[in-house]
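Question (not urgent): is this output format expected?
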Amino acid sequence: MSGDRLTLRIRLLLTVLLPVMLLSVAMTGVSLFRGARVADREIAERGLAIVRFLAPAAEYGVISGSRGSLDGLMQALQAQSDVAAAVLYDRRGDELARMGEPMLEDAAEARSASAAVHLWRRGQRAAFAAPVMSVPVEVDELAGAESVLAPLPVGWVYVELDTRAYDARWRATVLTAIGLATGAVVLAMLLAIRLANVVGAPVARLVEAVQRMARGDLDVQVGGRAGSEELYTLQQGFNSMARAIANAHKTLQARIEQATARLAHQALHDPLTALPNRRAFEQALEKMLAASRRAGDRGALCFMDLDHFKPVNDTGGHAAGDALLRVVADLIRSRLRSEDIVCRVGGDEFALILHGCTAEDAERIADDLCAVVRDLRFEWEGREYRIGASIGLAMIDGSVDSVADIVRAADQACYTVKREGRGRAMAWRPTDAAAPPPAE
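Got this back:
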């Protein structure tokens, strides 16, 4: 009898424990498999997002060779805790800017990228690269026409991510899953006899939940009424583990989205003045032009070019020039209305998009800005500098055919001002020629 009872006990233990152990192993395996895949995907998404936003942001700096612009991008990357190293190359593969110590041995590996690509993952580093594309414009001097050629790579961006934080979070998730699974097995072993008669339906629900998790449903929860208090505890343990995995995934995804949003903002803003950059200016002007055609909205485009800015750089150094540009940017912002937009589109060039104003309003605003800049007293290292501003403006009234036409008109008006004496604002005239302005 004693032997029979022992045999029955073993059978009951096997009947209850074997499914629970298999379930725990399956849950742990799924956690390992899903955790590894999620971590790899998040690293890839993060790296690709960085190079996709960095490539267009670096276009101006790579083409112009602007050291300040390139250093600004490197500083922005350095603020990202998971960026271990980064390099900007020109079209010949020469290094323009660097951050950190990359593991890349040959620049040709990065230059082989024709689009944003995940190159490799070695140890605690993951490498990504993307080309910096530029769309050249071909001008037919005889016909006076322009045509946009196919995009050409003018350089490459290369970024290495430090994957230690991602790996640490993955390991923490795995340890949590293993700990919960181990606790579930131990609990099942202690309560195997009591669970033998009521384990069927709850285990079936647990198996279904594991299968859903394997299919990618990280928000899975086991519902229904448990057959006993002990099985209810096991059910809650699984739900806690599932919530921990889902929360870890959501937290990582939220961090990726926040970092991506920051990079998106940096891609559309000038790092020196925090104003929208040329790319943002083109988008805003296209939107304004479309509104003008569709709803008859009126506005104006102003090109502002600083006069006598070069002597500030030559005598005070680039630090003085950068400080002056920030002062001028703040000054312009303070004089415009909330609905107007000011962008930095070049070294000492600004573009203003004025919404809902007449030609008289636009000229008044432009004249006011010229006067404010003319009255500015900029002091640097005990020396006072005086500058001026020349502004060319063109009206946006629905009659303009394209963004290129309105930009060309405002640009020509600005050139005319600089030829005719600088320091004032002038509206575009059909007789204006696109001759270059006089030298500073």
